[in-house]
Amino acid sequence: MLNPILVQGIEPGGQLTTTTEVENWPGDSEVQGPDLMIRMQDHAKAMGCEIIGDIITNLDTSKRPFTATGDSGTIYTADAVILATGARAKWLGLPSEEAFKGFGVSACATCDGFFYRGQEIVVIGGGNTAVEEALFLTNFASKVTLIHRRDELRAEKILQDRLMKNPKIEPLWFHQLEEVVGEDNPKGVEAVRVKHVETGEITEIPCKGVFVAIGHAPANELVKDVLELHNGGYVKVEAGSTRTSIPGIFAAGDLTDHVYRQAVTSAGMGCMAALDAEKFLAEHDA
User: Fold this and answer.
1) What is the largest CA-CA distance in the chain?
2) Which of 32, 56, 98, 175 is deepest in the core (most CB within 10 A)?
3) Which of 111, 207, 257, 276 is flagged as catalytic?
4) Domain encompassing residue 33
């Protein structure tokens, strides 16, 4: 009964609309990501949320009520704002990577690793994300090749030690991904071509899956200059809450969570944000 509106933004439904099978959502042993998001949208509408197809281009947090400007020119006013803009996986930007996205190329091992049981796969990257994904993928894959453009990892030492001790993982130093090679009928990845960064030599590595693990970028464009951020651009919230550095502005999900990045934890934070916002409004007689 707080008259909530949801402005959908550039990708209604977020990251879950770009994945296929979701197997870690409570109550569904398997559900298609887009179907789950349609169900959530219908649920929100049934609870009285007005859903608007617009993109917020500016948010004025300097005074209450807060005002948000849409790409449509519409001005939205609110006594409390919940930011749930999510994050985006970083990609390399190769045409072949784009062509096989969802057909063997992924940026989420926990989402898609299960499909490569007994297969050979490659992981691209050298930070915590890459090492964590490579280690996780050894639960399914017969072999994981970690491709990194340098000869040392940026990941935490404990993760590096676990990686080096794992017999299923083979690091390939001083290489970068040049091209994903695959078939069109049925569509799927067959190999990757990698280039030695110093000699320029091209090597082809057979694989069925390519996991691009060069990190995530929180979608913080609206608030990066006004809210306190940490850990590379994630919105900072008070411990155990969704309160940001500006009273009345709350943040939930992947925009603020650089650790878990799961649909279920984001949904839980959404619930926290709603309760935090309700309490804030009650205290400020909105």
Assistant:
1) 67
2) 175
3) 111
4) 5-87+216-283
CATH number of the domain at 36, please.
Answer: 3.50.50.60
Smallest CA-to-CA distance from 110 within 175, 15, 200 is with 15
Where do we find the tokens 């449509």? 72
Minimal CA–CA distance to 262: which of 13, 89, 16, 9?
A: 16
Three-state secondary structure string covering 214-235: CCEEECCCCCCCCCCEECCCEE
Rounded distance between C-alpha atoms, residue 217 and residue 203, angstroms: 30
| DSSP state at residue 236 | P
Same structural domain for residues 28 and 82?
yes
Residues 12, 17: Cα–Cα separation, whole Å = 8
For every residue of 42-56, DSSP letters joined together read: HHHHHTT-EEE---E
Say whether the peptide bond before residue 186 is cis (omega within 30 degrees of 0). yes
**Is 111 in the active site?**
yes
**Tokens at residue 96, please?**
């072949």
Concerning whether 108 is annotated as a catalytic residue, the answer is yes
Choosing from 49, 54, 79, 108, the catalytic residue is: 108
| One domain for residues 31 and 70 | yes
Give the pLDDT of the chain (286 residues) as one tens digit per residue. 889 999 998 888 888 887 667 878 999 998 988 999 999 999 999 999 999 999 999 999 999 999 999 999 999 999 999 999 999 888 999 999 999 998 999 998 887 899 999 999 999 999 988 998 999 999 999 999 999 999 999 888 999 999 999 999 999 999 999 999 999 989 999 999 999 999 999 999 999 999 999 988 899 999 999 999 998 899 999 999 999 999 999 999 999 998 888 899 999 999 999 999 999 999 997 4
Active-site residue identified among 71, 79, 112, 285: 112
Distant-in-sequence, close-in-space partners of 15: CB < 8 Å, separation ≥ 6: 86, 87, 88, 89, 108, 254
3 state SS of 250: strand
